[in-house]
Every structure is written in C-alpha cells, then in structure tokens.
Amino acid sequence: MDYDGKEVNAFSLGAAFLQHCLKQRWIVHKVEGKMHIYLVTPEGEKALSSEPYNFTPDKFMKRLPKVD
Questions:
Q1: Where are the beta strands (DSSP E) in the chain?
Q2: pLDDT exceeds cutoff 90 at 26
Q3: Number of domains the chain is built from
Q4: Domain residues for 36?
C-alpha cells in the first residue's frame, strides 16, 4: 500500500489500547516484582474475540514454553 501518512509509534498505540482494555475491564494489571502482567477477564475474552477486534485466544494469549 502506498500511503504518505505520518509515522506512528507502535508502542504508544499498544499502550493506548492496553489502557482502553483496562478501562473496559477486559484485562487486569498485576505487578510481580519487576514484571507487569496483564490477564484477560472472561468479559475481555468475549469482547476481544468478537467484532471489531476478532482476536482469538491463540492470537492474544501468551504462549507458554513447551516442557518435555
């Protein structure tokens, strides 16, 4: 796509979306030591997996490493 628009900071955009999800109570924020963890709520899973987002759990949930 050829578009001569303004550049966007993807990290700022992502942070704004996280804030939106927190306000909607679709996710909750936990701090464990230096780690910031975001957990999806049941309402969030329903909202994010429907229009206009269409995020399925495999797209927005953290994948845990496989343990052999």
A1: 27-32, 35-40
A2: yes
A3: 1
A4: 26-68
